[in-house]
TrEMBL record:
One of its GO terms (biological process) is regulation of DNA-templated transcription. Signal peptide: none annotated. Pfam families: HicB, HicB_lk_antitox. PANTHER family: ANTITOXIN HICB, UPF0150 PROTEIN SSL0259. This is HicB_like antitoxin of bacterial toxin-antitoxin system. InterPro entries: Arc_rbn_hlx_hlx (IPR013321), HicB-like (IPR031807), Ribbon_hlx_hlx (IPR010985), TA_system_antitoxin (IPR051404), TTHA1013/TTHA0281-like (IPR035069), Uncharacterised_HicB (IPR008651). Residues 12-74 form the HicB-like antitoxin of toxin-antitoxin system domain.
Length: 127
């Protein structure tokens, strides 16, 4: 069974909105996946902190009452752990050839290598 710590370790998306001055100003933070679960504060940080406390109470109360606790509707980007950077060491002679060929093509060495890798992966994928 999923317990409080399970749900508290999930990344629930939240929305931060400024409150109009006629409503006292400050900020409100709401969790779209947790109905009526909000936090308010004079600063954004204070509102987020209050919302995090409210989220814990909301989940705790739901579990105690045997009510379902929804999981976050927005899942993490499956590519988030990849930076797009790939440091590469090579012989100086190969580096020279890459730079010369990239210059002939009128592109950067990075663009040239991406092109070559894409072509190679495409051929491999086709079998």
């Amino acid at each position: 069974m999923k317990d409080l710590s399970y749900y508290l370790n999930l990344d629930y998306p939240f929305i931060v909105k400024p409150l109009p001055q006629e409503e006292g100003g400050g900020y409100v933070v709401e969790y779209p996946d947790l109905p009526n679960c909000i936090g308010t504060g004079d600063t954004i940080q204070e509102a987020i902190s209050m919302a995090m406390d409210a989220r814990k109470c909301w989940i705790e109360a739901s579990l105690e009452e045997g009510l379902p606790v929804p999981e976050p509707s927005i899942q993490r980007d499956p590519l988030a752990e990849y930076s797009g950077r790939f440091p590469l060491r090579m012989p100086k002679s190969l580096h020279k050839m890459i730079l010369e060929n990239a210059k002939k093509e009128g592109v950067s060495a990075n663009q040239y290598l991406i092109h070559l890798i894409s072509l190679s992966i495409g051929k491999t994928a086709k079998g």
